[in-house]
Records
---
Amino acid sequence: MSNSKYLRKLSLCLFSVLDKAGASEYVRKLRQDGRLVEDVLETNLLLFEEREVGIYTFGSACEGTTTPGMNSDVDTMMCFLSMPVFEKEEDFDEYCMEELQEDPNEVEFSYALMLIDDYTPVGFTKLQFVKAEDDDCIITLSKDANGKDVVVNSGMIDAMDHDERNGPAATTLKRPGFSDLDHIPSFRCRKWPTVAEEFFTRERKYGFPSQDVRNDFGKYGIFFVPTGHSESPEKHLQWRLSYSLQERKIMLSLSETQYKCYVLLKMVKEDFVKPVVCGKSLTSYQCKTSMFFCMETTDAAVWVEENLIACFIKCVHLLKRWISKGFVPSYFMPLTNIWKGDACIRQRVVDVLDRVLQDAPGYLFKLRCDRVGIMLKDEFSPTRDEDGLHFTSDNDSNQSTCALQTAKRNLHLAVYNLHYTFLTHVAELTRHLMLNLVEKTDTMAQAIEKHRRLISVSQDTQTLAELSLKPIIDTQNAFRFVLPYVFADLGTHLALSDKLSGHKTISREAIQFLEKGLLSDALSGSLKYATALYALEQYEDCLKLLRNLDANLQSNVISQRICIARDNTTTILVSEDLLNKIIAEEPTLNDVLASHMATCVMFLPTEIELLPRELQYEMFRSCFAETDKLYWFGYVVVDAKILLYYLLYRVHEKLKHDEYRESSFLCMISTLEDDYNLCHFETAMNLIGCIWREKEKPDLAMKAFCNSWTRRPDHNAAKWHVALMCFDYFLANCLRNDAFDRKEAGQIEEKIIYCRVYLSSGDLK
């Protein structure tokens, strides 16, 4: 077999193996969609809170160019939109006239101008600060060599919480086995700078990137990240020009072969360069740059499956040539050198790359990352003879089988985790948005108006995209996750308004919003609807809805922990049924959320009269010296499955279905015992304790309340229930002595329910 034919067959096999290792189109798209949606929601949440910060995720996490075994860093850029940057003063005037429709002389905000002089290396700039008279913007400034006020780059990093400095990033270190999180502060200029004009004018034989893509690049503008040239005396005053948005645009549009080629380059870097070369050496960004230049100088028809290894070799050749000279050009500004290693490190990297080039197939068979090498050996043995037979020992066969099974399991768990962590974060961001929407002192009319306003703003994705500097398609995708939750909340407020107005049924408008809210996830939107039906005493309709939910509640519907601080080390109880379904059917994120995820159900303070009495206690969880503040403080939040069976219990109680009522209670208890992912254990125990109390089982009720209180000593309504249990005991003794009657006792209990807790003063009203 000729060498070229051998490489083509090996390429096809490697293409398939990379899919099994986690570099498939499905996983890639999953990572991309999730990160882009999170960026949009985080940015808009900050804008709604009047904090002008844009969030952008770059690198492998957003591009999808990672696998479970790579453990790639998460690069998050925090762009401070409150201080725009302009290349020259004329650009500021143009921005004011065109974008703001104002006279530049009347605009009152601070901004910065790019300042490039003889002290500034190519690819860097200083930022000259122009402060408005009435602007209280606080920026660390210093005089440069020419006596001009420029922004100091270290001030941005020093103001952030981090464990170590990593170039322009503040790095927060996680536990071993988890990704590091790099926070990169930045400013942004909306226009492409003149110093990088060569990118648009240089000759492109094969038209990469296309003219349309290059036109978009100009609209994106650029970022300025806080790092200076290492050999410059003014490095503390310099900001590196970053073309991260343009780079991300290219990476998101890679063909499958180009995508897998880049993954291969990263695997070689991790497995063969990193273990033998200490310090700053070959980086993922340099690998990416080599591939960009190869794509620019190669016909697109070459980048096909059977040429995967040939394309990989071409990129390695280019890297070797660059590094041997000590100069790796930036793709967007080729005069900028992105190589950082010294001569000794340079030679070591060149030696490794040279060995890889001499026997590329042999090195691919040795890849350890995600067990690619072993799986490749299993599917394409290099010991085949001319008749196609191959000879492997039983030990090799067992090793291959074990590697394949391990890689498959790791991939399946990683994909499952991608769905879970992304959807949990999106639901968490959405709930956080809702928590800031309504205040405790709002009237029902004010709460309804605020919900309508939020819906109107959320549906105007064109304006949101412009304000947040995000693509409109990403903004639209993001708010498809948010709006159903807002619809459900508006529906319950309208239903409660109907109840307070004396109506016996839910209005048509409320029903329309509640029905739209059904799409939020598998349970929570439906349970908001059921709660409204229960509050208006439409018990038969409520029972019908709840029974339908219960009948369709399978083991592959999992609870989402959204009401605790996000922690990448939190253990997730895996649903094997859902895991198998995801792998077999490859559903979208929306599909999994709508059918298989059950977020906690939240009720705002203005919804308190919608709730059954026992849940109303959860609105007042804190008192006196409790200071461990949680962002869901002052709201009722209950796990969806617990609320499902609790409402079923109450509806059956109202309809006098004693047998079904007890069955619902048992389901509630078993859910608490079996569902590890439940977030509000204490709320569930409090509800169970209330039911035991009603059943006149004080010992079991007290045990439930104590278990709840033990699990969460602070911010727990169990304190009220225990107080009532003591009151019951006291009341029983008093009634024996005719101290006061049951009616008076009931009035006292009602007052306890509506106690207002004031943490700041410790007073009770």
Note: The two ends are 88 Å apart (CA to CA).
---
Amino acid sequence: MDAGQPLDVRPLAAKVVGICAGEAHTLALTAEGEVYSWGRGTFGRLGTGKEEDETRPVRVSFVSGKKGQGCSNKPPRIVAVAAGAYHSLALEDDGSVWSWGYNLYGQLGVDSENSLVPIFLDEFLDLVSPRSLQNQSDSQGKAQLKIVSIMADGMMSFAIDNIGGLWMWGNCPQLSKDGDEPFSLVSIPTPRPVWFLHGRCVVKVECGNEHVVVLASPGETVYGGDLVCYAWGNNNHGQLGLGDNESRSYPEVVKSFDVDSPWSIYEIACGSFHTTVLTRRKPHSPEKDAQELRRMRLEDRASVCWTFGLGDNGQLGHGKATSSSFPEPVYGLPEDVLLKSVDCGLFHTCVASEAGEVWVWGMEKGLGLCPEATFSGEDPGDALIPLKVICNENIDSNFAAPVQVACGAAHTVVAAHDGYRMWAWGRGHSGVLGNGSTANSLVPCTVMWPPLQMDFERKEVLDRKERAKPSESEKIAGAKKGASTLEDIQDLNTKIASMERYINVLHTYILGERFEDLGLPLGPENSVADVHKAWWKMLDSADDGKLNQMKRFYQSMLSAVEEKIMKRKVHEMVRECLSSLPADMKSS
């Protein structure tokens, strides 16, 4: 699909509204509520019904029918996705939660083995207020609740209900009422409310391998931006931001971001052993706070990124490879940017601004951007300060309208162009970059989006609608088409756009860049000639290895869709398009 196509004619099925990444897999959510996955398939984390890797996005099929509701042919409409290390979660628009993948610690929320396909969590079917679970006589507390947010990382899973209650399951930090018990992890096979935050309105939750960070109200009501940060769990690297390395078995407020702080928190993210917080300055800070802001050189910043925890690989962005148990600002970012999205990987961090600028830092230059590094003791190749990611050297340095960024253990994904395009970079093992290859990429490469399957399904729907028209209207439409040269040209341009789509896919897979990114003029008057020339030029310059690679890609593509349907549609399209070409081009 042409990235320059007007937004009002782009299909919502191809618009990505959310992305997330696990250890070596990626999930994408479309505006029509469908989920796509790619990358490593072990333990069933992709939800495809098998454990094979997928190098390109494939759609996740959700089992129809729920407990107490019978079977339905209507597929669930998903509104949120989350990825743990080896498992995945999805939230339906009615508050239902689905899970699939690894379940050794109960992170799927059901007492069962690993699942290769999404399974429905009936634990939330009759969800009521945690208060009613403690006091059965409280009739008001028995009001039906609904899950509105989900989150997963490591071996843990979380959900937030519509009154701000927090639920957790999986391999979670043990909570102690007295808060003086030693740190430990406990397996929770089914969702359990976090009683220690009862009465607080939880807005967002993030977690690392063994620690949890929550953004919540200081009391029972949220007042404007007065949200505070709670943290608990393992703190051996200072990832709780409490100024020490002592673990906590009880949620404790991070003093740097309490109600008296001059900062308003709006985003949090956790790596395996570090934490990132995005803040804005509160509008009316006391003079003592203003003096402190000037001392820290933060008074003129539109937003500030803070990091704390493990810093051995530069993932804190403080200019040094050391850890910090206290939140410190990342000074390597421009002062006037408004940061919009943040995520953390195993040992790297990525942020994006509203203007489409993206920065990374940490392990191996943010897992890319370091082809000259030797990765020796003197040159580990890590980025100690933020490095700007270039979207495309031939077009622009920024990404257009980023949706969000997502970090896996060793890869990063960016959704941009209003969600109609995605890029990825880092280690490409198991196809986690979604570009049809398993090779590493030091710079952003285009994810193969939308999938070919989506193109063919859309064409099938259009064909069925066309065949369902009354015979009289078909005659009228046919007469108008035969009488109108303009409609003939539009029909031909539609076929040309489809051909460009397939050429883009092949060109990306073979040469590592999109055909349209080469700067070639594509339009109604010269599109066929440019595609024709560039296609044969590419074939002439390709060696045997590239040609064999293209052959394998064709074989894989043909097996991904029903072979007979695929062949028929491709043959029909090529035959119709060739019949419309000038005679001299047919013979060339």
Note: The two ends are 27 Å apart (CA to CA).
---
Amino acid sequence: MRVKDGEQPAMEEGVPADAVGRRIACDGEIATVLFVGMVPPTKGLWLGVEWDNPERGKHDGCHEGVRYFTCSHPTGGSFVRPKKASFGVDYVTALKLRYEREREGTEPVIKGIAVDYRYQKLSNKQKAENLREVALRRCEVWGATPGDDIKNTTPDVEFLDLSHNLLWSWEPLAAITEQLPELTGLHLGYNRLSVPSDPSSLRHAFANLKVLILQGCGLTWPQVLQCAGMWPQVEELYLERNNITQLQRPVDVLQSLTTLDLTNNPIASETLPEISALSGLKTLVLADTGLSTIEFNDVPAGSKTAMFPALQNLALRDNNITEWRVLNELEKLASLEHLMVQRNPLIESGERNPETAWQITIARIGQLHTLNSRQIDPVERRGAERDYLKMFGKQWLESGGHWDPEKNNPGAAFLAEHPRYLALIQKHGAPDEGELVTKKPFALKNQLLNLTFTCPDDTDRKPIPKKLPCSMELQKVKGLLHRLLKLPGVDLHLSYTGTRMEGAEVEMDNDLKELQFYSIEDGDSILVRWS
């Protein structure tokens, strides 16, 4: 409820008249009031609340066979006495408690909770009026009192952190933000904001907002779309840890978005195309959403989709991706340059080691500049793509491929599985017959060599012990060394030596040969030089 031209609602035993739906703090926890009244046979007033942390509660609102309220979690509810609950403080009061105590050198505390602040701090010569960033995290802010106190106190605020507070509706929030004309960034994480009956009436209060963080607010996607009309200029929207499952197409809202973070929401993968028409979206974070498939069915394999036309950065880490065809679908994205796929079964496990999975990913998505936050240098890309040609060369031949371009006609099934293969042949040439890989049962533990990498021309670098399969190609070894030594974009020159060789070195000059080709033995040292 937005307060207008008057004091806060009348109180009974310290309880506001509009208490149902309001948020309270109690013993360091936050809850929503769902009931105010008597609970026989006890005397006096009780608040029936649902805790944000369901482990704090005891029941679902049913007590002694009588239902007083209903919780979304079977143990989310409790009854508390009003004297134990705090309905919070207004913005200006919280500001004074937080910043004035800080300037005095004492830690600001409200109702026994130490205030967590991360932004500007006031020196003895500074005033709140000069602040451009205000952090009132965990300050029990409920809204604003009537008047222009906020505008007069912090007129220049550009970023405001109100996360973990007692805001329960967009109306009291608007009473704060409408007095902050310079506000472009707002953090509202872990509040519970009900959808207003007329969102358009509050549009003026968020008209200049560019960055909005709604982490852990219990929102569904339809609720986001209902509220989105209030944020006409928002460019970055962070929705981590909400209740977003089914995505629907944004109509006339969110069209200014460049960044959307949907981390830790159980999203149905088939609904992902619904947001693909956000033509300005450059960054999409879908980490830990349970995704296993992604499909852009408007074009066949090997073509570029019209979906997500501006998308450059895509985060798919911590999902359930198990099939390479998902990466083939990502190759359809016209603008994709940066991809994060850590901790997916496809990358972290299976019959191929992580280094091989890394190379296959690079080869399947031709326009990537970084993978898992690591730069892909031209040398590494060339090696990965050549190795990919060799790895699947036998399948290419068996499907109808041929070294003679006029006879090179692999089948549709092969091209659907390897849509870049023909383009890679044009780029690097077809693999020689002697380079084609015959798939063997993977028995890594029986093929490991204990090796030590040393850098004789850089004595400050410590030797690096590694266990590597003797079947590992030299190109993959170099890719590993680029990352271990943090030497992207340089040419590595390898040789090896051992105790049996009396100081002699054997040059390793063919990137397509396996370690075992050079007769390396367990305990040998590989010497690493670069230019």
Note: The chain has four domains: 11-84, 94-373, 379-435, 444-530.
---
Amino acid sequence: MWSILKLNALLPAIIPWIVFFTVHKQKQDEPFFREYFDREYDYIVVGAGSSGPVVANRLSEDPKVKVLLLEAGGYEVYQSEIPMLAARLQLSEYDWQYKTEPQKYACQGMNEHRSNWPRGKILGGCSTMNYMLYVRGNKKDYDIWESYGNYGWDWKGVFPYFVKSEDNRDPAILKNGYHGFNGPLTVSTTHYTTPIGGAFLEAAKLHGYPNIDINGARQTGFAVPQGTVRRGARCSTAKAYLRDYRHRKNLHTVIYAHVTKVIIDDNKRAVGVKFNRRGLDHVVYARREIILSAGSINSPQLLMLSGIGPRYHLESLGIPVVADLPGVGQNLQDHIGVGGLQFHIDAPVSVVQPRVYVAKSFTQWVTLGIGPLTMLGGLDGIGFINTKYANASDDFPDVEIHFIPSCPSSDGGESVRKAMNLKSALFQKVYSPFLYEDTYAYYPVLLRPRSVGWMKLRSANPYDQPIIQPNYLSDPYDAKVLVDSLKISIKMGLSKPFQKFKTRIWSRTWYGCEKYRPYSDEYLECLTRSYTATIYHPVGTAKMGPPTDPLAVVDPELRVYGVKGLRVIDASIMPKIVSGNTNAPIIMIGEKGADLIKGRLYPPNIAPGYAPVPDYLTNPAKEKHAAKGPLSHLGNIFGKFNFLKF
């Protein structure tokens, strides 16, 4: 009898999980990816990351066009659905597990002075394992692109494509005329914040930074972040652009297909691709074009393996040169942040593993899409600030603040420590005495680094990882900006809104910086060069530019110079990194790139500030648009269960 009573008590928690895993398994078995493929297609898209599914989806809108999308990794897994578990996919089979070369001026607190560079090897790519922040960057970023000779890539030229992709679920934000509501990509505002998240916003106001929509009229300010999240679950590009359109017979998605070469004929036209799938080599041909959307590492790697790149480098590896393009692999840029600026608090209000990873949190997430597991990678707020090196009167901030209500000790050293590649001696000295204690951290990010790196092939073997050299902090200016941002962060982090939590700055001297006075400029620079953490935003390695640019790889229509029928449509075409997280801009590039292939552009009359708003905001009698998703039709039966609305 007692066992029956216990079972009845547990049923409310057990049933949702049983249904969740059953439904999730059914989702993965639904055939939107294929075991078989044709010999010839109109278009072949290489890479199903943040941009590839966008391109494949838009090209296949024409039922007369047949599109093949190839992805080296497999399908999404249930861990990727939970926003808080974003970092858990790093260093797994779903990650390419790249590492940089040892850094001379940075990463001194990391093993071998190397930074891990996780890249998604899974449907959705990095959009399936990132922190889901929806940030477009600054309008001036795109005006700068056009000033380099990239016609049509100014803010007015790209803004309609942000609107086109977006299905924003926040009515307050939709009213301002800067967002879309009918696109495939669900964007929503984080509904769960910790009490110290509110203090973060209040501290910003005290220092002159308002709470705003950072994707609206201005960027300088602070916000509760919006993310690519649908009802508390991740909305990757695989979910938004593939899973929701699985009915299309002319869109074939093939997983575990590692493309090793683009086949180029004697007329220097790309005619097909060679790929390995489960140990067997295959060749598929394209009647019209081949599009590389494999990302800022894999796309230039594939170009060079196919004979497109710097002549001297290709010849040194015995690769026949098809097109001598010195810019392939050059112009590598990334956003870096400084870790290590933590604060102690006495109140139990932060994110610590024993308190958050409990049955209650998972049940809240599964059934209602609420609770701490919906936090975007554990992030509580973001802000854009001006250091003393920026023009404060100009809306062009030079640093982004990530506010995290935790630090590497909050999970007991289980996950973040490994993901950051921190030295054991560093972790033991700085973090081990405070395992699972309440903390929060300011994490300033350099938006426009002057330090530029490169990548190149390690060998002619397509399975060898390339050489990645980001040259972090090689330009002293970058360290100066970050030091000033740390000083601003300290002032904010110790300001009045936090004092009710009995805040004090981290008590342990940073490993390797003992000779400097704590929190002096020298100490902060030492910290900057020790805990130099990638924000996972590599761009620029197949630079877009006019024919007069000696390092340009693609023209403003994203066509590879010197080879017909071949384009690159992903983050690698950025001539200069944007001032913000890169996922939303990469999706925009996919949208615009697809229209460039079609030879027509999305309605240019959608101007910033004048995007349409949904009827339900102007006419209360109309209901809010229906939720999209492959399982939405089950909502009438099991409407209260969040997992049925993915």
Note: Confidence is low (pLDDT under 50) at residues 1-15, 22-29, 622-646.
